[in-house]
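User: Thanks for the earlier help. One more: palmitoyl-protein hydrolase. Can you show the sequence and predicted structure together?

Assistant: Of course, both are below.
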Amino acid sequence: MSAEKTAALIKPLQRLVVPNSSGRKHTATVIFLHGSGDTAVGVRHWLNVLVKGVFRFPHIRIVYPHAPQQPYTPLNGQLSNVWFDRRSIDANTTEMLNSVDVMKDRIHQLIEDEVRQGIPYHRIIIGGFSMGGAMALHAGYRYSRSLGGIFALSSFVPKDSAVFKELHSYKRSPPSAIVMSGDNDELVKFEWGVAVANTLKSLGIDCQFQMFEGLQHDMSIEEINILKEWIIQKLPE
């Protein structure tokens, strides 16, 4: 990657911020990362359509970061809004960590912005859909602080992911996780999500796995309602 492209990628992330529904100062934050090719506005609209605009909380503000455009190998190098580049969409691929780590560090900057506003690390949850969920696993578990939780919807990381390598020598209290997958997903295969959840559990993570029958590479009302309840449990008022 050229110096110019690297410099462009390390600028502060654009973000869409949805304040808590009560109007009071928020006491917790959820960071929701969109999937590849999507936008912050796009994923927020998708959630609003699914649950009729009520993906909000009285004490939690939601931050939707926006991935920059960068060349994406699975699209033959075309520019796309993606969190990182990868050789292929496959659980057996090798991660392109030089790409992953640039964005991981930028998301850590975003987390630190929330901490500077008075939100403790344990009151911050990060997660996302598809590639956003994979990025959340990297940002959440490859970090010097323990967050309040991590969620991954229709997501995977490769079998030899740096996420798992980091957890082998984890010195902190690891955040719990929820992994949710549809059994009819043709892009991110169901068994990849199962493997991520099982590996996290084997490494000592309190990880909940949820399967949705018939769900393709998509989000469902039931899934988002379960996610809302999980968030409230992890980040109570």
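User: Great, one quick takeaway?

Assistant: The first strand starts at residue 14 and ends at 18.
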